[in-house]
Design goal:
Blueprint lengths: L9 H4 L1 E6 L14 E2 L2 E4 L10 E5 L21 E5 L9 H4 L11 E2 L6 E2 L5 H8 L3 H8 L4 E6 L7 H15 L4 E4 L6 H6 L2 H4 L2 E7 L14 H6 L3 E5 L3 H7 L6 E2 L6 H13 L1 H5 L3 H4 L3 H10 L3 H10 L10 H7 L7
Parallel strand pairs: 1-3, 1-4, 4-5, 5-6, 6-7, 8-9, 8-10, 10-11, 11-12
Antiparallel strand pairs: 2-3
Helix pairs in contact: 3-13, 5-10
């Protein structure tokens, strides 16, 4: 983030310049003029002098002309990579190191230890989920007639995607009925034809990430396909402690808690036959406690809303000395 709050009025600090859309695809980024809180976003680089911040998606770092030191003021500039996929960034490690030494000042990432928390679920969706009540739960549970669903398109490109494919194969071999869809199973068309009623009739969604033990890496597989659509996520990939920090308490089942895929399959089959035990995974809806208060606070404002808040609060200058350390050297060897 190129950040010059000490020169500008609140009006100027409220403009966010998005240097390049994610992966160069405008369909993947915010629309021109999108507003978050008091801030407006633009892709118009000619407005850089007005901007309180410049946001870089990691895929755009060093891809084209950058506002290097010739556009810095003497008190320092603030730039941040906006990362959604740590594992993709491994290919970017060499170019990322060019930005060590103070070029980047804030990090905006799904990791909760970044400067701006940018999870896969947006705050408006999270707020809606956390308002659910017993009436919603009763109506949702009444629709459950199938066991497990898995949609996957990355079959073996990454170590994590190979490991998860092997794990699910063993679940099926152990007797767990898993309806599998996606590019990996050559049936994307069948998935597209599935009604929302059928999609939501599953009790479990296999929220298996394609990266193992990447800090806080929980994607739409957990949130949209699982929690948001009223299914219990069965998690593989992120560490259990990370999921516990970021998800409603008791809302998921983690593969690490079981000695083998066969043991997990047996437990899921047990839950399928025991409505009372299955309902326990929705206690956070029926009886929200202190932990849900923390959840609501954590997701009340995220992404660009948090960035805007920080800009308008006149924060002290900050330097990320090594983005290589933050995005790579502090990750687990399994993730890398």
């Amino acid at each position: 983030i190129l950040h010059r709050y000490y020169f500008y009025s609140v009006k100027r600090r409220s403009l966010l310049l998005l240097w390049r859309p994610p992966w160069g695809l405008f369909s993947e980024g915010r629309n021109e003029g999108f507003r978050a809180g008091e801030c407006e976003m633009t892709y118009n680089r000619s407005r850089i002098a007005e901007a309180g911040a410049v946001v870089f998606h990691y895929s755009g770092l060093d891809q084209d002309e950058m506002p290097w030191k010739h556009y810095r003021f003497y008190k320092g500039s603030f730039l941040t990579p906006w990362s959604h996929l740590t594992y993709v960034m491994h290919a970017e490690r060499r170019s990322m190191s060019k930005f060590d030494g103070g070029f980047i000042n804030w990090t905006m990432t799904y990791r909760s230890d970044g400067n701006v928390f940018c999870p896969y679920i947006e705050s408006n969706a999270a707020i809606s989920i956390f308002k659910r009540d017993q009436a919603w739960l009763n109506s949702t549970l009444a629709t459950k007639s199938k066991i497990a669903l898995w949609v996957v398109s990355n079959c073996g490109l990454l170590r994590g995607s190979r490991l998860r494919m092997d794990y699910v194969t063993k679940l099926v071999e152990a007797g767990l009925p898993v309806d599998r869809y996606g590019k990996c199973f050559n049936n994307k068309e069948e998935l597209a034809k599935m009604s929302s009623e059928d999609f939501n009739s599953y009790k479990f969604y296999l929220s298996f990430e394609n990266a193992e033990h990447c800090k806080d890496y929980m994607t739409e597989k957990f949130w949209r396909s699982g929690i948001e659509n009223g299914k219990v996520p069965v998690v593989w990939g992120p560490k259990k402690s990370d999921v516990e920090h970021l998800a409603p308490p008791g809302s998921f089942i983690h593969a690490d808690d079981f000695e083998s895929p066969a043991k997990l399959a047996t437990y899921l089959l047990y839950l399928d036959k025991n409505d009372t035990a299955y309902r326990e995974y929705f206690k956070w809806v029926e009886y929200p406690g202190e932990e849900m208060k923390r959840m609501k606070e954590l997701y009340a404002r995220t992404r660009e809303e948090v960035l805007c808040d920080k800009l308008l609060s006149n924060p002290s200058p900050n330097i990320v000395e090594s983005v290589t350390d933050f995005f790579y050297n502090l990750e687990s060897k399994e993730c890398l």
